Amino acid sequence: MLQTKQPVTVEKVLEGGITSPKGFLAGGTHAGLRYAKKDVGMIVSEVPAACAAVYTQSLFQAAPLTVTKESVSVEQKIQAVIVNSACANACTGEQGLKDAYEMRAKTAEKLSIEENLVAVASTGVIGELLPMDKIRLGIAALEPSELGAEDFQTAILTTDIVMKKACYETTVDGQKITIGGASKGSGMIHPNMATMLGFVTTDANIDSNLLQEALKSITNQTFNQITVDGDTSTNDMVLVMANGLAGNVPLTPDHPEWDNFYEALKRTCEDLAKEIARDGEGATKLIEVQVKGASSKEEANIIAKQIVGSNLVKTAVYGNDANWGRIIGAIGYSGVEVDVSNVDVSIGSIHMLIGSQPKTFSEEEATAYLKQDEVVIYVDLHQGDGVGTAWGCDLTYDYVKINASYRT
Amino acid sequence: MLQTKQPVTVEKVLEGGITSPKGFLAGGTHAGLRYAKKDVGMIVSEVPAACAAVYTQSLFQAAPLTVTKESVSVEQKIQAVIVNSACANACTGEQGLKDAYEMRAKTAEKLSIEENLVAVASTGVIGELLPMDKIRLGIAALEPSELGAEDFQTAILTTDIVMKKACYETTVDGQKITIGGASKGSGMIHPNMATMLGFVTTDANIDSNLLQEALKSITNQTFNQITVDGDTSTNDMVLVMANGLAGNVPLTPDHPEWDNFYEALKRTCEDLAKEIARDGEGATKLIEVQVKGASSKEEANIIAKQIVGSNLVKTAVYGNDANWGRIIGAIGYSGVEVDVSNVDVSIGSIHMLIGSQPKTFSEEEATAYLKQDEVVIYVDLHQGDGVGTAWGCDLTYDYVKINASYRT
């Protein structure tokens, strides 16, 4: 008998993070890869956790991704993640792969677990070998604990200005389920020094295949819908670990409270993604683009991302300039077929274009709205039911400054 | 009997331009759309000229493009072009279309020619109506002459800093053939105030269909291979007029000297395209990317353009930073399948990566090379015979400045 679906009840936990779900510990230490900041971090689950992961689409995948994929492939379970910042261990050939395997081995040895239960991630400069002496000392020094979420969040940052975390709670079978997350990434998605990494922990009991399906669907609506500069990294990865310690009956999409879990996971990923966009290199504002009336969700997402990724839209928002012609421009070259005679564009609640006809608006009002630190652009294509959202940031002098002199 | 092909002999004419080919006049005037700069321009051929044209891929095509396409469709001949800067006449609805038709009618009337022999182009801000009183006075005031090329070149500029022109001579059937060109565009390809426009004149005798084929093939190797900010305009257009006054036998690809004509046309377009890239908004350097060893010419072109369009590569070049990891990053997300284990990357003559292995190089030498005002990046994919080139510019503080405060 099909059970009635319950209303979705998900609560944000302001102070929560990756150690909020039952049975997860984390830590971070300064191993000397960076001048002073913590640079090696670890997450550990008390028991092996069902694992789902998505990786960069780049053909050049860094060594740690190769090793992590190998680990996950054995039994779709992960018990620990080891991460370093400062060096991406990408384009580093055979030695780079050996080093990533050694990071895995040293972590497994420290925790007395199988090597295939360890995932490895690195983020930083491409083409340089890891300083393995420092990495070894770092792994040895790590002391994961329930209080270590902040140390981990710090250890994975590169050009990021703020730590990124999220936590949501929900209920399944009367059991509290908690989902926590940490991410980094500032030039998204950025091949040199600001690779996007996301780590999500949960005590939910769920099979790894179902978790993978949920993650894939959610990634397309969250992490894949943010852009800072349109570039894609060699090291991007989002990894979810579900250790089952909440004690719920294993979750499936048929469960009446499946939506609670899906929504809590989605909101965790959306928060982490938005924080990456907001902290884009040099950014002063978060830009959100909401597209509706598209022929499909996919087309709405494409158009939303095209608008939020346009250098011209990004510079106009930085300059508090309600230059809607640039939004139209981005829609026009998105590759999606739209009815160009019936498009609405608004910035905040200010209508700029209705049915493709320019509307008179108050420049003062528009400028005042654009001066806020969150700007929302609305587009209605009047073609169908497809809705989609994308997030990005403005393009500023500081973006140029950060990236012009990065490596030197 | 198949005639033997001759060696290609094409000569650049440094001082030449759109009035260098026989029978072409041009002019430009200040009609008051801009504060002081000339803003309305005209090209006239003594006789109707075979015409070829390519237009923006954007779904939102401005009114002047609609009118020009209609003109060209009648007999594939054009005798005059009328252009204004400052206002793009895009997203301007019915009134905008009426205004573009009126620009065409007034020009035809002035020159006593059929309306369908007139092409119309506009470039400037989107969503504002043309000040037709000024446009009418401007058309009336124009006095096209053999000395008017510079006035025309100035009249079509927007945020451009320098005029863009080119001229080549070659020989067909013992007759001198001249090709001249003018272009504008600074944020390429840029929906607001720096639309890319190109106008090419030649006295060659060639059928419009063959001219169209040649233009399409050449555009893919020249105008379509430049990028300043990845945005595409509502108004982009390249128009070629061939009036036949050189008196050669009509050119066809079978003609032993076809390559002379094709190469002269290609070099004209390449010069105009490179000048647009070099004059990109805020740019301090021209960046050229040469890709070889790709599986096809198309794939080589895609990769070259992806590299030259990467914000991260552009900022690194601005900062004189030999950050080859960003070049690899752009190759990796280009969507083209490459053998990631065998890629060479050089900046100038300095090898950074050979067979995907990083090479030690002198940072001082690399920085010194990058400080030049033309930077060439070489990539070899070792997969096939496909070669391709793309041009762009660095991304600077001034790009942000120009575009953050443009409309206001």
Automatic annotation (TrEMBL), chains A, B:
Chain positions of site Involved in the stabilization of negative charge on the oxyanion by the formation of the oxyanion hole: 123-124
Location of the protein in the cell: Cytoplasm
Keyword Transferase included in the entry's annotation: yes
A Pfam family assignment: ArgJ
Sites annotated Cleavage: 194-195
Catalytic residues of the enzyme: 195 (nucleophile)
Residues annotated as binding substrate: 158, 184, 195, 281, 403, 408
Catalysed reactions, as listed in the record: N(2)-acetyl-L-ornithine + L-glutamate = N-acetyl-L-glutamate + L-ornithine; L-glutamate + acetyl-CoA = N-acetyl-L-glutamate + CoA + H(+)
Biological pathway: Amino-acid biosynthesis; L-arginine biosynthesis; N(2)-acetyl-L-ornithine from L-glutamate: step 1/4; Amino-acid biosynthesis; L-arginine biosynthesis; L-ornithine and N-acetyl-L-glutamate from L-glutamate and N(2)-acetyl-L-ornithine (cyclic): step 1/1
GO annotation, cellular component aspect: cytoplasm
CDD domains referenced in this protein's UniProt entry, alphabetically: OAT
Keywords for the protein's UniProt record, in alphabetical order: Acyltransferase, Amino-acid biosynthesis, Arginine biosynthesis, Autocatalytic cleavage, Cytoplasm, Multifunctional enzyme, Transferase
Signal peptide: none
GO MF: L-glutamate N-acetyltransferase activity; L-glutamate N-acetyltransferase activity, acting on acetyl-L-ornithine as donor
EC number: 2.3.1.35, 2.3.1.1
Chief localisation class: cytoplasm
BP GO terms, sorted: L-arginine biosynthetic process; ornithine biosynthetic process
InterPro entries per UniProt: Arg_biosynth_ArgJ, ArgJ-like_dom_sf, ArgJ_beta_C
UniProt subunit comment: Heterotetramer of two alpha and two beta chains.
Protein purpose: Catalyzes two activities which are involved in the cyclic version of arginine biosynthesis: the synthesis of N-acetylglutamate from glutamate and acetyl-CoA as the acetyl donor, and of ornithine by transacetylation between N(2)-acetylornithine and glutamate.
UniProt record similarity statement: Belongs to the ArgJ family.
Protein name as it appears in the record: Arginine biosynthesis bifunctional protein ArgJ
Gene assigned in the entry: argJ
